[in-house]
């Protein structure tokens, strides 16, 4: 069913952006959504919310599928404005980006039951209005019937370079070789996942951002959306 319209024959007014860590998905997805007046859903933030709650569990329970699925089923995750994530009413926008959550989140994302629950919610959110969704499995699993699917890629070296620069700009110490090794390990894990693994979705357009600046990527994506008949009525603003 990948890349196919739904039973009613309609493609969804969804821009699906998948790709490896550090390819610039979050920033590009957010800016493209802003430019188009679309909703932006960072699906990684949802897995991170479940991981944050899982850290309250005793150590030996943190990989327990039943416990993780209970958390995923109960967590009230809201995205009231760009960049803000509320978990059960509490602003966790900063907390879900901590190193501790980053280290814990792969276990959560590996769990098929957790994925099923979160994918269901992602579909509900994406159906409400024109949406830019970003993650690993948007074009393959969440919205195989998205009107436009993008696989955002860049060389490992340039991804590691950008990430190192970002960390240093934020006042953190960052060693390029260590950042590159961490990124390759996250790639391996993202690609090896039994469900929702990172893949190029059928019908996806591959954009290699190694030699493209962010403004160019956003402008290209916004133009693709505007040129697409499924989005025509949904586009509100111009960049
Ligand atoms: O994009 P990110 O680093 O915030 O994602 C956090 C984790 O969730 C990472 O381990 C990849 C995983 N993820 C996923 O499996 N599927 C998605 N659609 C989004 C993120």
The profile of the biggest β sheet is:
5 strands, parallel
Distance between the termini: 34 Å
- Can you tell me the CATH superfamily of the largest domain? P-loop containing nucleotide triphosphate hydrolases
Helical proportion, percent range? 40-55%
| CATH domain class of the largest domain | Alpha Beta
Give structural notes.
The structure is a single chain. By secondary structure, the protein is α/β, with parallel strands linked by helices. The protein folds into two domains: 1-38 and 130-233, 3-Layer(aba) Sandwich (Rossmann fold); 40-128, 3-Layer(aba) Sandwich (Rossmann fold). It is 47% helix and 14% strand. The chain has nine helices and eight strands. The strands form two sheets. The chain has a five-stranded parallel beta sheet with strand order 2-6-1-7-8, with helices on both faces. Strands 3-4-5 form a three-stranded antiparallel beta sheet, with no helix packed on it. A hairpin with a 2-residue loop joins strand 4 and strand 5 (90-91). Helix 2 (43-54) packs across helix 4 (99-110). The longest helix has 17 residues, at 112-128. The radius of gyration is 17 Å and the shape is globular. It starts with 11 loop residues before the first strand and ends in a 13-residue tail after the last helix. The model has no long low-confidence stretch (mean pLDDT 93). The structure holds 2'-deoxycytidine-5'-monophosphate. 2'-deoxycytidine-5'-monophosphate (DC) is lined by residues 21, 43-44, 47-48, 105-106, 109, 135-137, 190, 196.
């Amino acid at each position: 069913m990948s890349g196919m319209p739904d039973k009613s024959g309609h493609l969804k007014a969804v821009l699906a952006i998948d790709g490896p860590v550090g390819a610039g998905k979050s920033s590009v997805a957010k800016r493209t959504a802003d430019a188009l007046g679309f909703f932006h859903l960072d699906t990684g933030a949802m897995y991170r919310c479940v991981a944050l709650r899982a850290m309250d569990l005793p150590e030996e329970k943190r990989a327990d599928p039943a416990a993780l699925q209970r958390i995923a089923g109960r967590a009230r995750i809201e995205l009231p404005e760009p960049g803000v994530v509320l978990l059960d009413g509490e602003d966790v926008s900063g907390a879900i980006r901590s190193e501790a959550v980053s280290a814990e989140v792969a276990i959560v994302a590996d769990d098929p039951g957790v994925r099923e629950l979160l994918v269901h919610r992602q579909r509900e959110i994406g159906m409400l209005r024109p949406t830019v969704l970003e993650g690993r499995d948007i074009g393959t699993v969440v919205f195989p019937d998205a009107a436009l699917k993008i696989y955002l890629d860049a060389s490992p070296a340039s991804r590691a370079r950008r990430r190192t620069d970002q960390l240093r700009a934020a006042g953190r110490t960052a060693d390029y070789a260590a950042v590159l090794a961490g990124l390759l390990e996250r790639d391996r894990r993202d690609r090896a996942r039994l469900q929702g693994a990172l893949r190029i979705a059928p019908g996806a357009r591959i954009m290699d951002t190694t030699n493209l600046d962010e403004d160019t990527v956003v402008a290209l994506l916004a133009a693709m959306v505007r040129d697409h008949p499924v989005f025509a009525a949904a586009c509100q603003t111009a960049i």
